[in-house]
Amino acid sequence: MSLGLLTLVILIALVFEYINGFHDTANSIATVVATKVLTPGQAVVLAAVTNLGGALVGSAVAVTIATGLIDAGVLRVGAEVLVCALLGATIWDLITWWLGLPSSSSHALIGGLCGAALAASNGNPQAIIWMSDPSHWWKGGGVIPKVVVPMVASPIAGFALGIAVMGALLALFAWFGNRTGILRRLGRTPFVNAFFGKAQLISAAGMGVSHGMNDAQKTMGIIALALAGATAAHDFDHLPDWLAFLRVSDAGGHFMIPVWVKVMCALTMAAGTAAGGWRIINTLGHKMVKLHPINGFAAETSGAAVIIVSSLFGMPVSTTHVISSSIMGVGASKRFNAVRWTVVERMAWAWILTLPTSAFIAWLLVELSKPIWP
């Protein structure tokens, strides 16, 4: 991969990260805006700062994207694969953003990468690492243990944890109210709203950090994959000192994500956050279930916990899926019909279609563009 193609991949990756900012970062601040704890402007600043902090914590998810999904022994990942993967994910993101559907940029990117890899390898399924260790599928990398299993398990965990956290808070305050004779109208009581309005600042910050740890790292992984391909090419074998920042391996030969890549991706996502995303905030924060500060705190705490744990294990889960399911769990803990299930049904269809549709778009782009790539 030439320096020119490398620059092209990085620029398209940053465009995707920008779109990810107004598409997915909206999820991390939707509840704190919907409960009127922060204004949209204040929430954007909080999300941008905490995204940056989270993006700089660890690199397990980025390493999964860069080394755990595509088998470099079968397919050498070139610029055409990465460009078409990013375009496939971006096109699907824009479609769902326009429709106001909180689909997953994470799964769109993974679907795009897999679809592009299949097309570039002429349909060879071995180009994709399905399981790195079939005898112990839960270990190591691979699409099944790192993507498919968490894709199903993380929303379930978010839903269950949302019910559990909200239930525990309700039980605690009901007990306290019975003993003290106050807090008769939980959720509308000024004391409860004031307390959880402040507590929600912490939980919203936790969501921002978790989003940076997971979502920002996915584009880092794509850029690192491009850097690895470029530095492995003949004309990049011996990098001069002024190009040393392009290296993705340390002195011991271990794969690493350069700090400048982390900072660049985090800042780009923050800029995207400031640009918009209110269509999705409206769906999550208002249409799906009515939220009070105590509900927002429970949903954000549950979602952040699931995402942070997944990030530590290098699982690129969907922030959208997790926070949405946490909100559903919080709503269902009050009463089952508190959740507007017609909205949930529209979201579910977007979830189901994201991986195959983005994969198909990327596959089609590779096939159509084969005559123009060197």
Question: Characteristics of this structure?
Answer:
374 residues; 12 helices; mainly alpha
What report would you give on this structure?
The protein has one domain (3-369). The chain starts with a helix and ends in a 5-residue tail after the last helix. The chain is mostly helical and 374 residues long. 55% of the residues are buried. It contains twelve helices and no strands. Helix 2 packs across helix 7. The protein has helices spanning 3-34, 40-55, 60-67, 79-99, 105-120, 143-180, 190-232, 259-275, 278-287, 293-312, 319-334, 341-369.
What is this structure's SSE topology?
Elements: H1 3-34, H2 40-55, H3 60-67, H4 79-99, H5 105-120, H6 143-180, H7 190-232, H8 259-275, H9 278-287, H10 293-312, H11 319-334, H12 341-369
Helix pairs in contact: 1-2, 1-4, 1-7, 1-8, 1-9, 1-10, 1-11, 2-7, 2-8, 3-7, 4-5, 4-12, 5-12, 6-10, 6-11, 7-8, 7-10, 10-11
